[in-house]
Each structure stands twice: as C-alpha cells, then as structure tokens.
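So, could you explain this one?
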Amino acid sequence: MSDPNKAAFKRVMLKISGEALMGDQGFGLHPPTVERIAKEVKSVHDMGVEICMVIGGGNIFRGLQGSAQGMERTTADYMGMLATVMNALAVQSALEAEGIHTRVISAITMNEVAEPYIRRRAVRHLEKKRVCIFAAGTGNPYFTTDTAATLRASEMSCEAIFKGTKVDGVYDKDPMKYPDAKRYETVSYDDVLAKRLGVMDASAIALARDNNLPIIVFSLDEPGGFKGILAGEGTYTRVQG
C-alpha cells in the first residue's frame, strides 16, 4: 500500500501547455483554471517535492502559426517566448495567493519582472522549496517549450518530467476521435519517435532519452491527478528507455 503523503520523486518538472490555462475559452487566461492548477501544484509542494515548471504560450501566441501567416520565424518565436512569460507571471500570482514562494526565471533578460536564468541560483531556490517557473523557452528561436522543459529538467537534475495534457496518457491514436484508441502503460523513447506519438517534439524526446529522464504523461483535468501519481496511484503513461 503506497503512502499518499510520501512522494515517488524528490524533484520534478511540470510541463503544461499554454492552452491548459485558457479553460473553455478560445484564447487567453481563465483565472479559475489558473487557480485550480495552482492548487494542484500546492498539493504536491505540500508533500515536500521540489517543483520546476515550464508553461507554453499557445493560448496567447504561437510562433509556428505566426510564421505560417508570413511573419519571419525568428520574430514569431520571440513573440511566443514573451507569451510564456505572461503565463508564468499569472501562475506565479496564483501560487503566491496559495502561500507558495515562487520565482519566475526568464531565458530572455527582463529584470523588472523576472530573474535571469542562472543555474546555481535556480537550484538554490529549489533547495529552499521555492517553485521555479522557467519562462521564455530556451531563449532561442526554433526550439519549443517542450525542449526547454527537458533542457531545464536535465540542468536542474529533476527525476522526471510530468507532462500535463487533456488525456490520461499516450495513446496509439487520438482518443478524442477514435473510441478504440489504446493507451500505453509504458512506451520507449524510440517508439515515441518512430510512431510519431506526439508526446513532445522529437528534439525534446531525444534529449530526455540521452539523459535517461522519464516522461510521465497524465491528465491535468483530473482533480488530484498530479499528487496521485506522485503517491503511486492514478492513470498515466511512462515514457522511458
């Protein structure tokens, strides 16, 4: 029997999409949804787990869509990075309302709103049980926030990446469209790449594989799901070697 207050990991990376923050709206931030996610993070923080976060920017601006509409790709990607900073500040505000000390750490220098990324300082924040939200991706165009999450998780020595999605794991096809879709309990990095399972982009999967960093895909819409998995329960898919 697993102890619900004993966590399976000491330090984790939580990666969520920008779309997760917009609730049922088609755009922007939905404050009650942001608050609900903050409460989920608090429940895990209360178990003594050190938490890093990376949040996408797709609810505000997506670089790939911008470049598809004729905008220069580099400019579009930088705009997407700035969108992630806005989301990070919103989540920071919600977490601090829950009484959790939080730092937004940006890969693009903007001293008035966020700290610059200095690895040793970020590690110290985690050791002091502060939640670190890494914003602005890797600071480079052409890299997604999935890759940024895997990079920061590796740099911070996280034991796993938790990828919060709309579904409770990795399926062989879209479960929203196909009722006969099959969920994997575990799947290898190579299978994710070969079958194009869409867990994360290829460079993020390859980086996780090279650093032997498991990726746990779970539903962010499931109340208590994040805490449950850390306590050894719940439904999820584990991507590993």
Q: What stands out?
A: The first strand starts at residue 11 and ends at 16. The beta strands are 11-16, 50-55, 102-106, 115-116, 131-135, 160-165, 186-188, 215-219, 237-240. The chain has a mean pLDDT of 94.
